[in-house]
Design goal:
This protein has 191 residues and is an all-beta fold. The protein is built from no helices and 16 strands.
């Protein structure tokens, strides 16, 4: 709690095979990855600042399940603000994941909840579900001002509800066998 972990070439904060930790109120800027979890479950990452990192602001990898990623400032990263990879049942809410390459990026990640986040003015995609990221719920997010607001690629059985995907080149994109998704009551204006 309350640490300053800046300018590390690899990770600012790293949890490996750890559970039931709280990472709160830290500053993790100008690192390779600001906050990195792998093989770690039931943790809370809340109220941190993770900006200007090279690869990701917050990254959750390799069976890091049931984590809460809440109300973090994870904007202005060079590549991805928040990445969830090969992990399930995570709850991502109230984060600012704007002004990066991609705001929120899921790959091989299923059964996660992405709710009420800002993923605005990213260079490429606001929110991306890719490589068999199935059964996720993406609701009440803002993904405006990028190349694509919300992108699904080889990802099926997701719920995309009540999001704002306006002011992009493409509002919501489904590609490469993205099947059986529910796209309901999203706003897509001026794309």
């Amino acid at each position: 709690v309350g640490n300053i972990v800046n300018e590390n070439p690899n990770y600012g904060i790293h949890l490996y095979s750890s559970k039931e930790n709280t990472i709160e109120g830290n500053s993790a800027n100008l690192n390779g990855i600001g906050i990195y979890l792998d093989w770690s479950v039931d943790n809370t990452i809340g109220g941190n600042t993770a900006t200007h990192n090279e690869f990701a602001g917050i990254a959750v990898f390799w069976a890091s399940d049931n984590n809460q990623i809440l109300f973090n400032q994870v904007h202005s990263n060079m590549n991805i603000s928040i990445r969830i990879s090969s992990s399930s049942f995570n709850h991502v809410e109230g984060n600012n994941a704007s002004f990066s390459g991609v705001g929120i990026f899921l790959d091989w990640a299923s059964d996660n909840v992405i709710i009420n986040n800002l993923a605005n003015y990213n260079a490429y995609h606001g929110i991306t579900l890719e490589w068999f990221s199935d059964r996720n719920r993406v609701t009440d997010n803002s993904a405006i001002g990028g190349l694509v607001g919300i992108s699904l690629d080889m990802s099926s059985n997701n719920e995309i509800l009540y999001n704002n995907a306006s002011l992009n080149n493409i509002g919501i994109s489904l590609e490469w066998t993205s099947n059986n998704n529910i796209i309901f009551r999203n706003t897509m204006s001026h794309n």
